[in-house]
């Protein structure tokens, strides 16, 4: 990619898939895939889907295209994954949040999750953010590995059962 800007409609990261900026009709599909995958793979309850729905609704209603993005990964028009970078409402305007990283089972192992997270980092730097925060759970081993490889640091962890299963909520940060 070199010095190409990150705001192009299509960004080819790998010959086997393409990253593009979201379209409004992608957001319900993001919610649906989170519901299907996380309930099946981790037994998460409806509270998790309420969180995902709130994130996507807030994004749709308040999206600032200069400072926020949602990327969709696809191959031949088929959805392979997604990620969002949104303003951190709890910061002074210099912080962002990485939200809703998802990679379809059929696309795992391609490096797609890492590409999506790196895309967030590049865009956050271009948008003038100085920090990215995220929330994840201890059982999401692959995602946690991706975050650590990108330079995120675990800053807080606590036991949590709000998703219907006992888990450890983790809060990670990346200083840019």
UniProtKB/TrEMBL annotation:
Residues 17-176 form the N-acetyltransferase domain. Keywords: Transferase. It holds the Pfam family Acetyltransf_1. It comes from the Eukaryota. One of its GO terms (molecular function) is N-acetyltransferase activity. This is N-acetyltransferase domain-containing protein. It comes from Aspergillus calidoustus.
């Amino acid at each position: 990619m070199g010095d190409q800007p990150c705001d192009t409609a299509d960004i080819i990261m790998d010959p086997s898939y393409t990253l593009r900026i979201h379209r409004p009709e992608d957001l319900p599909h993001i919610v649906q895939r989170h519901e299907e995958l996380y309930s099946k793979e981790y037994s998460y309850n409806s509270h998790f889907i309420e969180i995902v729905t709130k994130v996507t609704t807030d994004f749709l209603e308040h999206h600032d295209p200069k400072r926020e993005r949602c990327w969709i990964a696809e191959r031949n028009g088929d959805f392979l994954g997604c990620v969002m970078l949104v303003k951190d409402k709890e910061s002074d305007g210099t912080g962002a949040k990485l939200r809703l990283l998802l990679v379809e089972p059929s696309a795992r192992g391609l490096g797609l999750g890492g590409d999506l997270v790196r895309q967030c980092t590049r865009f956050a730097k271009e948008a003038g953010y100085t920090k990215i925060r995220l929330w994840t759970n201890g059982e999401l081993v692959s995602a946690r590995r991706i975050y650590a490889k990108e330079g995120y640091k675990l800053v807080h962890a606590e036991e949590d059962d709000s998703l219907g299963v006992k888990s450890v909520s983790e809060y990670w940060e990346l200083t840019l």
